[in-house]
Specification:
The strands form 2 sheets. Strands 2, 4, 5, 6, 9, 10 and 11 form a 7-stranded mixed sheet that branches. A 4-stranded antiparallel sheet has the order 1-3-8-7, with no helix packed on it. It is built from no helices and 11 strands. With 126 residues, the chain is mainly beta.
């Protein structure tokens, strides 16, 4: 069974940085996409960034470009999201998710992701 566990969330001041971690286990597909998503109160869940297990390709939402960086540690089966220059609008519950690998999908469509972690809260406030 696939399990995803997020960590690293917390309270940070505007302009600050935070690194989120997603520890994955139970993935059996050859290729899949692992992504970070977020959901703020009253808003739809949205994709932030994703990375391909095949070649390490990355993708970012416009709101994250230039500020966030996704990376992976293959040995630890862990994906990270480095968040810099944080803004109050970045406040949300951040989820790690992965596709099941059956379609080799790579992107930020929430509907394409099968497995989800419980989320980690990120609050940006002064």
């Amino acid at each position: 069974q696939v399990q995803l566990v997020e960590s690293g969330g917390g309270l940070v001041q505007p302009g600050g940085s935070l690194r989120l971690s997603c520890a994955a286990s139970g993935l059996t597909a050859d290729y899949y996409s692992i992504g970070w998503f977020r959901q703020a109160p009253g808003k739809e869940r949205e994709g932030v960034s994703c990375i391909s297990s095949r070649d390490g390709s990355t993708r970012y939402a416009d709101s994250a470009k230039g500020r966030f960086a996704i990376s992976r540690d293959k040995a630890k089966n862990t994906v990270y999201l480095e968040m810099n220059s944080l803004k109050p609008e970045d406040t949300a519950l951040y989820y790690c998710a992965t596709t099941d690998g059956s379609s080799w999908y790579f992107g930020l469509d929430v509907q394409e992701y099968e497995f989800w972690g419980q989320g980690t809260q990120v609050t940006v406030s002064s």
